[in-house]
Amino acid sequence: MKKTVYVLLFLFETCFISAQMPIYKDPKQPIDVRVSDLLSKMTLDEKVAQTMSIWQKRSEFLYDANGNFDIEKAKKNMSFGIGEINRPSENPNGSLNGSYGRNPKEMAAITNAIQKFFVNNTRLGIPVLFHEEALHGLPAKDATSFPQSIALASTWDDDLIKRIFTSVAAEVRSRGAHHVLAPVIDIARDPRWGRFEETYGEDPFLVSRMGVAAVKGFQGENTTNGIDKNHVMATLKHLTGHGQPEAGNNTSPANLGEREIREAFLPPFFAAIKEANAQSVMASYNEIDGVPSHANTFLLKKILKDEWGFKGLVVSDYGAISELQSRHHLTETQAEAGILAFKTGVDIETPDITTYQYLKPAIESGKLAIEILDETVSRILKAKFSMGLFENPYVDVANAEVVSNMESSKKLAKEAADKAIVLLQNNDVFLPLNLSKIKTVAVIGPNADRKQLGGYSDSPKYVITLLEGIKNKVGNKVKVSYAEGCRLIEENQWNRWYKDAITPTAETDNKARIEEAVKVAENADVIILALGSDEALNREGWAENHLGDRSSIELFGQQNELLNRLSKLGKPIVVTLFNGAPLAIQNVQEKAKSILECWYLGQEGGNAVADVLLGNVNPSGKLPATFPRTTGQIPAYYNHKPTARRGYHFEENSPLYNFGFGLSYTSFTYSKPVLNKNTIKIGESSSISVTVTNIGKTDGDEIVQMYIHDLVSSVTVPVKELKGFKRVLLKAGESKTITIDITPDTLSLWDLSMKYTVEAGDFEILVGSSSADKDLQKVILKVEN
């Protein structure tokens, strides 16, 4: 009897609670049911608010004069809620200046305070999404700074990429943010373009593998039931053609046809959506064939949603919807620009409430159907439910500090920097340095003692420069002297990437620096010369007063003059390059014993380069992009069509360094490659195997690369395309057999009917250490009907 009473009381209590609790707040209900219930309760104002975000207007709507949360302002301005709040790591007033950024505890505290307002002080208690950048780490105070994207691509290590962005996701989420505007998976084909450094290079397959790994790191491997509290929602940037702008000028038109878009630019997006379930996509600033991406139904509806079945969020790039009116001139008013983008399928406008404030009157007047708004808001709400924000809207402030100081993250940053360095030249096996034969090392150059992390960075706890790294590693074994040699620009502050105008250093001012460097070098046994570029010279050019692209890829300023003067001393010179895109360095190749491409290596950069110089680390990176000999060779990407690259008068036609190239302190040999099946039918698979042997005395990593070329096809195809690679560690004298699969996907092309298919015929399967013909062995695979 007593047991029956308890059961009845329990059932009564459960029914009572259920009657009081709205369905959308019940975590036991399916997400789609919760979304539908919540949507049915929302007013038009509340729905439209979910499509908006705020950034620079935070001080107007949310913050007091000191950048603290102001609940009275929020009550006045945010009573209907908001979709996203952008970059809570910054303070105050939307400043992009690391000096004013919030530390882990401060960021966690303010996201909690803001979230508490939306959960407790708005009618329906809909939590807000906070978004941040996360290109190569959270660009916030005291967050771990990993190597820039182009450097990460040089590792050709997708497992490493996944581990890095798992770490980044934990840092972001611990501070209260949920949505990151990364990774950038544009195909970069013009090194004049300032955003080249943000990409994983020029090849669709390599970028696809890096992109898939990054998304899995950000979101976690299994997102079927949502994204857990240690991960964040990733955003694929930028759909599409952004990486081959006209004349290398950021946001310029991408003069591309549909087949080329499908062959080269779309594969990374497709892979990241299909393999990693990417939850968000950002449209690109540029236009294709006269249609800007934010108004391009072919991209955002036909391909992304209809063909690929993408059901996640489409977010605008910052201010791009406004530009449909102000720059592209597709509409007469900002209101019309907002309606156009919204109808095209852009769910959330960033960075501020600008054009989507006109959605409400558009719906009330009948210009925009309420059904379109409901579909959009449903996607936004689903993202918030999937992130678990209705159940767990807050973060542990103390934990944010712990996660941002993990020793494992520092070690991961060092591993990434080690693996990213590419040995381009090593004449007379000069590297690694033998300290027993050296008394003095001269560290010289504009990048020798400058902290450079690349775009979308802030202020990590520490950054090791090259000079500091060398001093750390050599200790008292040799004397280390230093001279700047020359300066590239006068702006020397930490956040110069964000500064609008920059000032090139006058040639006359650099003459004295060059003379000083010569004097320092005269007393040295070895010169370590740090050249390249600067974060502010090649960067995102987001406005006419904030340029970022260059018309030339030659070394900027007086760097070649410095090199020429030092070379006359007859001392051995090792050049370390710090830059974000391929450079024309024929003069460096002629005058340096050894060359290391270092890119921007993150907070552990100086330690990593020093370890490579001294042989503590064997360099293993491979180039993710082709290095042209001159600016005039652009475009120089390796996977060109057969009729390209005929050549120019009086110029060597080959690139200076091929895609996939990179030396080691040891040597590897390849056996003759063997196909598992020499003949297959359409739809079948094969594989290729090759035995790689380390014939040197040093352990080292080799990256085995497989390229494919369809010999005769109904449409033109590239002369070769990367379709597989494996990174393998080989101890001195060790051999390993590497097998790479050949699937229908790796053999397919877009035919005359724009159908992705395999055509019968002969295919060259090429295996080796780089894309250069001399580094590849080939076999023929026959594909029959």
From TrEMBL:
Keywords: Glycosidase, Hydrolase. Pfam families: Fn3-like (PF14310), Glyco_hydro_3 (PF00933), Glyco_hydro_3_C (PF01915). GO terms for molecular function: beta-glucosidase activity. SMART domains: Fn3_like. Residues 702-771 form the Fibronectin type III-like domain. One of its GO terms (biological process) is glucan catabolic process. PANTHER family: BETA-XYLOSIDASE (PTHR30620:SF123), PERIPLASMIC BETA-GLUCOSIDASE-RELATED (PTHR30620). Belongs to the glycosyl hydrolase 3 family. This is Beta-glucosidase.
